[in-house]
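Example (one chain per record):
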Amino acid sequence: MRDTLNYQGNDQGQSEPRPDQLAISDRDGNQAMNARIWNRRGFIGQASAVGAMLPWVGQTIAEDLAQTPGQTSGPFYPVPEIAKQPHSDADLTRRAADGPLAEGEMIDVRGTVVGIDGRPLSGAIVELWQACHSGRYQHQADSNQAPLDPNFQYWARLVCDPEGAYRFQSIIPGKYPGRTPHIHFRVVAEGFPELVTQMYFQQFGEANQKDGIYSRLSMQQKESVTVSLAKQEGAARLQGDFRMVLARAATDRATPPMP
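Predicted structure:
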């Protein structure tokens, strides 16, 4: 399987890092099982802490979880693909460690990738891409006349820790014409069918209901892909949790190891 998406539809501080911290892509595009980027970027967070805050991790699931609904990847998956981009780490709010911040309201999103039995999928690859504050994607096919943000990263490629946890820092995307604000996700885990989906924001309830893609989902599916953002005590940014549940492994649809 190629490490790219098949396009469809119209898309519309600083402590010494510990070995149990989240694996993310560094500024050179390499995978690193440490938190050096988090620390140098001033973004504090450990995967172990993420797992502790997510109640389903480590619990015995009595019955299968509902899988996260698949949705269109849209026409704006990055070119070249995210794995080949010079910058794809977990902090989308700036392009360089000492660079200026992007425009928009900052958010801190964490979550887990699990199977329908609730088992965390260690090493799963999570790719995400989104529009900037103005609602424009950094893609040659986006005809939106809104300005690009030269300081925004637009995408990230993460590796889930042993608890299936991931975390990234971004902004709330602007409204792309014809769409409600959303973030695209692609999840690849060895032995499981690939998942391409979208994450929505509860605060845009009216716009969500008018969105042609969101409105096709059942009530349960809407709840599974809609995130409520809140600012915790002492936190500088809005925070939200987004769990993704992959379908049962099937040999005819399973994804081979990611290079």
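Caption: Residues 23-246 form a domain with the Protocatechuate 3,4-Dioxygenase, subunit A fold (CATH 2.60.130.10).
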